[in-house]
Design brief:
The protein is of the alpha/beta class and 285 residues long. It contains eleven helices and six strands. A six-stranded mixed sheet has the order 3-2-1-4-6-5, with helices on both faces. β1, α2 and β2 form a beta-alpha-beta unit. α8 packs across α10 and α8 crosses α11. It is elongated and about 75 Å long.
């Protein structure tokens, strides 16, 4: 599959972030714990150079815990502060607050020497679409102050959230980068739902995902759907379609409907905690 998706609003969002970067003390970048490499926008590294950096491994409850530990260590070795969180449940927020304070310790001290006291730390919250930025902000603030949902593109413009006296968060729209040099990156982002499905071939996407599960998590498909896993991905998807009653006219299997079911089961944790890439090889699982 060929992934090219860079709507005009992302160009506008990136420009807005560039204009506001001088106002912040720290860049808080959310990545999806299932794909911490593929969901990390390389443009943000350039945008936030010379700023303190905190990587949030969000949705850690959906990822393979042992692989997530490896990613945590990997990004710490790259010089980032790192926190694992489950924004839906508020898990990890105390650690995030502690790390923000630690990352901005020198800035606080410089302010104190200049007679600037009790000024809140300003943090920009960035990340790709559907990585959970708004849910994170609401959880961090302890109240609903950002619009949330399970589809990309809900945050349209910048918004300062000043519900914490010590930290102010600048919410930003999710942005991808103009072109995926490695199409596997696009594939993984499509699997987690960070690319709008309207532009995707769901049948191809689900077959690729079935092949990934056959190789890396054998037994998952049989446990969930009661199907034989041996054979080609199209054959496996046919079996899932029949097992789940995904049928069209004439008793023909509706593989696209079965594909949507498989991807939704993954995104809803019905297949269990599955990571799509490891830090050892980064691009290649």
């Amino acid at each position: 599959m060929d992934f090219q998706w860079y709507p005009g609003h992302m160009t506008k969002a990136k420009r807005m972030m560039q204009e506001n970067i001088k106002l912040i003390d720290i860049m808080v970048e959310l990545v999806d714990a299932r794909v911490p490499y593929s969901s990390k926008n390389p443009d943000i590294d350039e945008l936030a150079r010379n700023k303190s950096r905190l990587i949030i491994l969000n949705k850690e409850d959906m990822a393979d815990p042992e692989i997530t530990k490896g990613w945590e260590q990997y990004y710490k070795e790259q010089g980032f502060f790192v926190a694992k969180v489950n924004s839906q449940r508020g898990a990890g927020m105390k650690e995030v607050r502690k790390l923000i304070e630690e990352a901005c310790k020198e800035k606080r001290e410089r302010d104190r020497k200049r007679g600037i006291l009790n000024r809140p730390i300003r943090a920009m919250v960035a990340g790709i679409p559907n990585v959970g930025k708004s849910t994170f902000i609401n959880s961090f603030a302890g109240k609903a102050c950002a619009k949330t949902g399970n589809k990309p593109g809900l945050t349209k413009g910048k918004k300062w959230n000043k519900n914490n006296k010590n930290v102010e968060l600048l919410d930003t729209p999710g942005i991808l980068w103009p072109k995926f040099d490695d199409q596997t990156v696009g594939l993984r982002l499509a699997w987690i739902g960070s690319i709008r499905e309207e532009i995707l071939n769901v049948s191809e996407l689900s077959e690729e995902f079935a092949a990934f599960l056959q190789e890396n998590y054998p037994g998952i498909l049989h446990a969930r759907y009661g199907v034989e896993e041996a054979g080609t991905p199209p054959e496996v998807m046919e079996r899932i379609a029949r097992a789940r009653g995904c049928l069209a006219k004439g008793n023909q299997t509706d593989v696209e409907k079965a594909g949507s079911l498989l991807l939704e089961d993954y995104r809803s944790l019905r297949l269990g905690r599955i990571s799509l890439e490891s830090p050892d090889s980064r691009k290649d699982f």
